[in-house]
Write a structure and sequence with these properties.
The complex is a heterodimer.
Chain A: H1 15-28, H2 33-40, H3 42-59, H4 61-65, H5 95-131, H6 133-148, H7 151-161, H8 167-194, H9 197-204, H10 209-217, H11 222-245, H12 256-265, H13 274-302
Helix pairs in contact in A: 1-2, 2-13, 3-5, 3-13, 5-6, 5-8, 5-11, 5-13, 6-8, 7-8, 8-11, 9-10, 11-12, 11-13, 12-13
Chain B: E1 33-44, E2 52-63, E3 67-71, H1 78-86, E4 93-102, E5 105-106, H2 112-118, E6 123-127, H3 140-150, H4 157-167, H5 184-196, E7 202-206, H6 214-231, E8 234-239, H7 242-248, E9 251-256, E10 259-265, H8 266-271, H9 276-282, E11 296-297, E12 333-335, E13 338-340, H10 343-346, E14 365-366, E15 390-403, E16 406-420, E17 425-429, H11 436-443, E18 451-457, E19 464-466, H12 472-479, E20 482-485, H13 499-511, H14 516-528, H15 535-538, H16 547-559, E21 565-569, H17 577-594, E22 597-602, H18 605-611, E23 614-619, E24 622-628, H19 629-634, H20 639-647
Parallel strand pairs in B: 3-8, 3-9, 6-7, 7-8, 17-22, 17-23, 20-21, 21-22
Antiparallel strand pairs in B: 1-2, 1-4, 4-5, 9-10, 10-13, 11-14, 12-13, 15-16, 15-18, 18-19, 23-24
The chains are: A mainly alpha, B alpha/beta.
The structure holds adenosine-5'-diphosphate, iron/sulfur cluster and magnesium ion.
The site of magnesium ion has 3 residues of chain B, from helix 11.
InterPro entries (chain A): BP-dependent_transpt_permease, MetI-like, MetI-like_sf
Protein name (chain A): ABC transmembrane type-1 domain-containing protein
Membrane topology (chain A): Multi-pass membrane protein
Chain lengths: 309, 659
Amino acid sequence: MSTPVPAVRAPGADTEAVQVATRVLGRGTRLPGWFVILWRNGKCRLGLLMLAGFVLVAIFAPVIGRYDPRDDDFDTSAGPSAAHWLGTTALGEDVFAQLVFGARTSLVVGIAAGLLCTVIGLVVGLTAGYLGGWLDEVLSFFINLGLVVPALPLMVTLAAYSPVRGLTLIILVISVTGWAYGARIKRSQIITLRTRDYITAARFAGDRTARIIAHEIVPNMTSLIVVGFMGAALGAIGGEAGLAFLGLGDPQTVSWGTMLNQASLGGALLSGQWAWLIAPGAALALLITSFTLINFGIDALSNPHLRED
Amino acid sequence: MNLFQPEPRGAHTPRPTLRSDEPQGEVEKGSMALLEVENLSVTYAPRDAPVTRAVQDVSFRIREGEFVGLLGESGCGKSTLGNGILRLLSPPARISGGRVVLDGVDLTGADEERLRGLRWTNLSTVFQSSMNSLNPVLRIEAQFAETFAAHRVGEEVGARVVELLRMVSLDPGVLRAYPHELSGGMRQRVALALALALRPRLVLLDEPTTGLDVVVQRNILDRLATLRHELGFAVLFISHDLGTVLEMADRVMVMYAGEIVEDRPAPDLVREAQHPYTRGLLGSYADPRSAEVRVSYIPGRPPDLSVEQPGCRFTPRCPYAEDACGQRRPELRPDDGGLVRCLVAQDGRLPRTPAGAGPGLPVFVGFPAAAGLDRSADPPPEQAVGDPVLLVDDVTKRYTTRRGLRTTSVDAVRGVSLALRPGRVTALVGQSGSGKTTIARLVTGVERPTSGQVRFTAADSTTEVRVDRLRGRALRDYRRHVQMIFQDPFSALNPTRTVGYALSRPLVNYHGLRGPAVRERAAELLESVGLAPAGQFLDKLPHQLSGGQRQRVVTARALAPEPEILIADEPVSMLDVSIRAEILELLGKLVRTRRLAMLYITHDLLSARLLADEVLVLNHGDLVEQGPTLEVVGAARDDYTRLLLDSIPNPFSAARRPG
Ligand SMILES: Nc1ncnc2c1ncn2[C@@H]1O[C@H](COP(=O)(O)OP(=O)(O)O)[C@@H](O)[C@H]1O
Ligand code: SF4
Ligand SMILES: [Mg+2]
């Protein structure tokens, strides 16, 4: 019902208030304020712990995995055993080692593509939103284009037709298809912030445009930037797995997507190697779950009413 | 058929049968308590801050059809109390004690389902922000339809909505509009119409007209008064603006530091307020037309409610305070005709106020005549008037907007000329949309005039600068001489930047100061606007300051480049009435001691009367009246000026009181 009573805020609408809250919280501790808010949310804390687990596994992969994931000196298509906890592949590689190293790939792709999307989105969004005029119209056209073109088919096409295969390519393809959403949110946020009196005041205080953007606007958007990064990273992890599963990944890299691809090609289903088939999917699902849980906290970050304080 | 004539209840709307819960007996309807609040307390218990007891042990009743005002400075707990009654509190706020009974139903114990049924049908509300919380993607029509549908009112919705709009003086055409296509005043009237849609018996209005123009405000308040007489609903009207509250209400409750300190029929309160705090609030009012205008303010701010304080909470600000006040907490006790919470008043030892003279109680800080705010009839000495620093010469600004294929053009300003002189305040008065802000933009070089000239001559030079031709670097240099004080102190300071940072920017950019010199100079600036000791403020974030303190910081920042011209665009309209006088006094002092030329933009003729030497009245882009303040305000010739004057709520004029 349309009550003029409690207005529900759009997520991210109140970034200034969030920023103030985070600055205040950050003053007492050495942690950034946004982290404090995230940590306080129970679901988010679980997600952060899970993510930390994945990061540790990725860092210590050689120790935890015990074998080289590309070492194919073992029996082929063996079931789980003490030596090979999740069995071996059709080529005779250790599935567990691949699973552990796969975490590295997913996180690297997530972080790199997430950063790239964020940077592109920030630059495009800031320029379009702050400068306005014809530049905004041109950039907005590209943002809208990026939004309407379906990402997965475009990714598949780009990856399929590219002459080289490699992780860098995957990261680039994902970033090219994924920056627009963040850019749109940042653009509209800037348009709101640009009209604030303190921006006019900064101009009257003699500050130049670059300084105004860097010192007056961006500090009021950091939570939005963190939110955007998390979203982009999640999309990138899923995108990489999808491409690799379709056989469009980097054949040199071990990832959960390639594992799934090999498992279906290598007849894991026929040989009854359930562990080989299920493990990479389960790992992916867990990583995605951790991001989703963290997103609960991020919602709290952008909506003070959801904050657990 | 007039749907809103008093007719048997339930004739059209299936109403929840709450009446059966009522106590039985031969109680006369008019004297029955519709709302009973008993010992209500609300606390905020945030995780990172100490517990604040925002509402403490508040009890009162509202009778059927009664109009009750709730008055107090911001931060005294008015809205918390209102939201507590409506059960709209969200964590970290919660009701920590007491009951709210509406028409026999205990709201504090009711579940959400029950509350949903009661809201709108029995109890509805309009907030200051209501105009901004209409659903932006729905046409006004759909918003009404939803409200009716949610309460299963099927038949005759169309006729009824038109009737509702007529009640709030809106054209049925607005039904096809989206909220953003309407002005603030229109949206607020839509919100009011929605609140009245289901004929509630109690309407809670929380600052419903704050931030709106005087003329729009007058219009809404007049509608409200008429509607209430026609429909007979009861109102709890919350505001910090005692002009409107006293004019509208039958009975007024004054709230200070989470407690009701006085409760009395409005005419008695105007005649002889018994609580020192109420007297202080009344002092901020005066009639701008009188030959001598004197306002006063209560120094200091309401106390921090997270700190337990023995004795009377008003003690630090009270001019009547005695030793006992610091130790013994006064109770809210009946005296003749009302309730008061003051030890001295309860003993009958509070000096009487001179009959008839409400404003300007000398016991509170009054403006010393030298500060220029105690304006008597004599014109200022002529020799003080210097050569103009800025001349606006026959300026017209036309905005052309293209919407699809159609172009429309508006003359925001037509043929306006004015001069700003050092040490003088020129007030630009007019409704919103009259072109005031456009003139400010022309003077600061943000916009260029379509025709006419804007010329600036610095005090220490003879060369004229054509402001209407400046661009780039030259414009930036010019800005050093022209600085702004903004309307909204909450938006004029970056929420993530400290006070010290805000002040450092002009010092670095215009004076080339570096290192510790910046901090030193910033501290001096803060002291010059009355924020002392400055060290305490430099590292604060804006949200840690009160509205008045923020406006002082904004003023200090504007003074930093040592400008010749200060443009103040409604600098006090967002502030509490009680601190407006304080900021006006500061501005007046700065203008005179630093020989600044000030353009003071306002729609409030009382503040113009207090601050300005000269007044220009603008109507739809035309200058309709111009002259020395007292002449324009005291003997307005133009109809529009008179309309502005008549729109000012005046608690002291008995003539306006309805009934
Ligand atoms: N940028 C603009 N584009 C189109 N019309 C404008 C613009 N700025 C102001 N106007 C119009 O000019 C008139 C005067 O506006 P303004 O200067 O803002 O008055 P005030 O300061 O009294 O509110 C209004 O009718 C407004 O719609
Ligand atoms: S009790 Fe004392 S301090 Fe409190 S309002 Fe009365 S006189 Fe002032
Ligand atoms: Mg304006």
